[in-house]
Amino acid sequence: MNRREWGLTTLAGLTGLALPRATSAQSAGTGRGYRYVHLDVFTDRRLAGNQLLVFVQPAGLDTDAMQALTRESNYSECTFVWPPEQPGTDHRVRIFGRTAEMPFAGHPTIGTAFALAHAGVLKPAMSKTVFGLGVGPTHIDLEWKGRQLAFAWMTQLKPTFGKTVDDAGGLAAAIGLEKDAVIRPAQEVHTGSTFLIVPLATRKAVDAAVLDRAKVDAVLTAAGVQRRGLYVFSTERGQDDATAYSRLLGSGGIEDPATGSAAGPAGSYAVKHGLVPSDRAASIIFLQGVLVRRPSRIHVNVASAGSEIASVKVGGTSVVVGEGSMSV
I need a surface site. Which of 68, 145, 202, 255 has the fewest CB within 10 A? Predict the structure, then answer.
């Protein structure tokens, strides 16, 4: 049986099913459908990594509708791919979180590249593309295996290192750890988004950390640091090949399983402060999402020129889970 015969047989079977007829209210409420690709990002297996919907044909949607579709998905982000707006870019990619549009994010950028490859927009002959994000043009390097996209790298902004929290014991206590768990002063680092990077002694400490927002805010205020997302990591080796084990400490019971926009700053911090040796700076792997049972592998390539970090790339793979459409 060839694919056409199989399809006709399947269609005939579906036609014979006794499905309930749509009510007049359901029929009247049917709107235009917008196609999406559903992916798991920073993983090579389904039902792991970070979830993403990529709307590949969003023409007709306004900002409010894109925000509403993202809320409906209940995923941390969705992306909407538009024609380019800036010279030198190939696609305008708008990223929405549950509450607002975002100028920059990691897993939505990597996942969008895989969605466009799946849709046939990016082709095996292409070694790179440029997305127009809210922060500006973002270069994406593409690696193929046959006709399948195997890996994508996004170039993040050159890191900016901000204020530090020198009260390591106070910060450790604010996240429920012993005072010696924080091994160096935490620091603000920006490669597109700003995070407070917190190095911990062990993987056990990473797993045990709990965000107490009020206590953390008090420590940050005393240090003159704005409220930031806390990205904790340890370079303690485990049974895997990861360079670092990490979490983005969440509040309200929600924890991100893979945060590419924080892995760039964390990789930059680790290289700057000698937690990752220079000969391994181009092949850093952050293992995130283990506690929430969605393990993710985020690759970071930090290149230096002398004592300065010259560039930061964050990359990974993704797997398509399914396709569908949502109506508005």
Answer: 145
Considering 108, 132, 155, which residue would you say is the last residue of a domain?
Answer: 155
Strand residue runs (E) in the chain: 33-41, 50-55, 77-82, 91-97, 101-102, 128-133, 136-145, 148-156, 160-165, 186-190, 194-199, 229-234, 244-248, 284-288, 296-305, 308-316, 318-327
Within 10 angstroms of residue 299's Cβ, the number of other Cβ atoms is: 22
Collapsed DSSP state (helix, strand, coil) of residue 8: helix
* Widest distance between CA atoms in the chain: 71
User: pTM value?
Assistant: 0.91
Residue with tokens 């407070």: 196
Q: Are 262 and 248 in contact (CB under 8 A)?
A: yes
Q: Do the bridges between strand 244-248 and strand 229-234 make them parallel or antiparallel, or are there none, so unpaired?
A: antiparallel
Coil/strand/helix, residue 206: helix
Which of 155, 181, 214 delimits the end of a domain?
A: 155
pLDDT band at 274 (very low <50, low <70, confident <90, very high): very high
- Which residues pair with residue 252 across a beta bridge? none
Answer whether residue 9 is part of any domain: no
pLDDT tens readout for residues 205-246: 999 999 999 999 999 999 999 999 999 999 999 999 999 999
Is the Cβ–Cβ distance between 134 and 102 less than 8 Å?
Answer: yes
CA 12 to chain centre: 41
